[in-house]
Amino acid sequence: MWNIPNILTLLRIVLIPVFVVVFYLPVPWARLVCALIFTIAAVTDWLDGYLARRWNQTSPLGAFLDPVADKLMVAVALVLLVQAEASILLALPAAVIIGREITVSALREWMAEIGARAMVKVSMAGKVKTALQMISIMLLILGSPFLGLPLYWPAVVLLYVAALLTLWSMILYLRAAWPSLTRMPDQA
Predict the structure, then answer these.
(1) Do 160 and 168 meet the contact criterion of CB atoms below 8 Å apart?
(2) 27-44 tens-digit pLDDT
(3) Structural domains in the chain?
(4) How far apart are CA 185 and CA 14, in angstroms?
């Protein structure tokens, strides 16, 4: 249970309140540190899964906590960003991304209950969506130009691309599950 992949996953969860506190610190370096925390969370999201498979250390605890940790960090970051810049420009893709995560999580839970979880396993569209989402959120957290490079508008564009991929991957998951969702109870 206490293997390196699970410890990395737990680290991501522990970093969430640290991220929130640092985000609100009235110091000029707060956003940079938050971007670093978010980047660590994103890298460990990939790393814990890789190590668990590579070292054959997958576990029910890790399978449960890994997607929870990812979704919590992304949702918290998006909520903080929308709160910091209350505009439809960020609120719309944030709502799409958070809404999709709730929908797909519920779908996966329901499909697992009926023994069809494999029908809604992670797709390549979901993986690309996650990568773009992480990059865009990290850039939005930084906000102001970094090393002279403008970050805000490229980050917003990436967030919208991630939101579109989010919708697309949700459609793929729903389409895969549709026969199970529309089956009459006596057809089970």
Answers:
(1) no
(2) 999 999 999 999 999 999
(3) 4-178 (1.20.120.1760)
(4) 42
